[in-house]
Amino acid sequence: MSDSKKINPDDYALATRAVRAGQQRTSEGENSEPIFATSSYVFASAAEAAARFSGEQPGNIYSRFTNPTVRTFEERLAAMEGAERCVATASGMSAITATCIGLLKTGDHIVSSRSIFGSTTMLFENFLRKLGIETTFVELSDVSAWEQAIKPETKFLFLETPSNPLTELVDIAALADIAHKKDCLLVVDNCFCTPVLQQPIALGADIVIHSATKYIDGQGRCMGGAVCGSNEIVGDSVYGFLRTAGPSMSAFNAWVFLKGLETLQLRMQAHSASALKLAQWLEQQAVVERAYYPGLESHPQHELAKQQQSGYGGIVSFELKGGKEAGWNLIDATRLISISANLGDAKTTITHPATTTHGRLTSEQRQNAGISDGLIRVAVGLEDIDDIKNDLARGM
Ligand SMILES: *Cc1c(COP(=O)(O)O)cnc(C)c1O
What we know:
Aspartate Aminotransferase, domain 1
């Protein structure tokens, strides 16, 4: 392949990187990126095959670890996150698993936010623990708790900000400082913000993780994930595990995500604008006890959100007076909104965290996490926001 127009992303703004970075045209001169639906590659000679396998010569070998469509996606997302390297995975969870197995060994320790994706909690508590890797969970926004939880064995700090579903934040730069003073890495799952709204590496984070399944796809079609960071950490340790163990992204999914990246900025701006309107409206409804959204002036960390993010995202939560009954009634009265725990879709979704995403917690654990029985989470999509308000008003 030869393409004299392959761009240097450093010369261009985010929106341009999202459309152009990583593309290397073939001799066919295609304008849109092709899908390389091939599992293997052929070599010109036995000597070339040997050179590829030994790593002496760069190039494709086998699609578990080298595929041009996947590579284009990786280069584009790396350019958007400001990372040296990105590796794509079959799902968000396999991105997190590959990061853990690639970097940790028995006896190591993780400090993690308590408010993370449920399957990530299960991975840390059940499976890593079985391998002798312990995790201490702390309150996301309590910076001193993070510092106190770090031990000599701690290898990384893990978090999502804003949190799900209560949209709490933590100061990424402050935590990066703490991590680096103690020789640890900072890992940020940036699924809710995407690089459009928040770039953790510029704030000092070492590794950024994505579930591409959510906003990067943006239309609820494909499963995928990614790990972004330095050549040393991501290119050696994480990629080393991935190419061997094999939870790889398919070429087709990589192509869907590539196309998703091209519209990501527009979509994140639209999700954020609609979510802000919805949150402001919810605050004025008599049956709503409280709304949670970083864009609201009433959000306790609104100033941090303004400083750390360039938009507030698509997730809005609110507490209804009347507990679970009121919550379920509101959900069941909707005619348009999808009753689904997924997020990052053009279609708005609604969920009752206490009986779904957080249903496996004890009621005491839920109380500690601030997940009340009247809490509802809406992942605002791309429909007209007045139609979403009207749909929610039916059950109020
Ligand atoms: C969905 C999600 C994941 C897991 O991603 P999958 O693609 O479902 O494996 C991880 N982190 C966050 C914040 C998520 O929302």
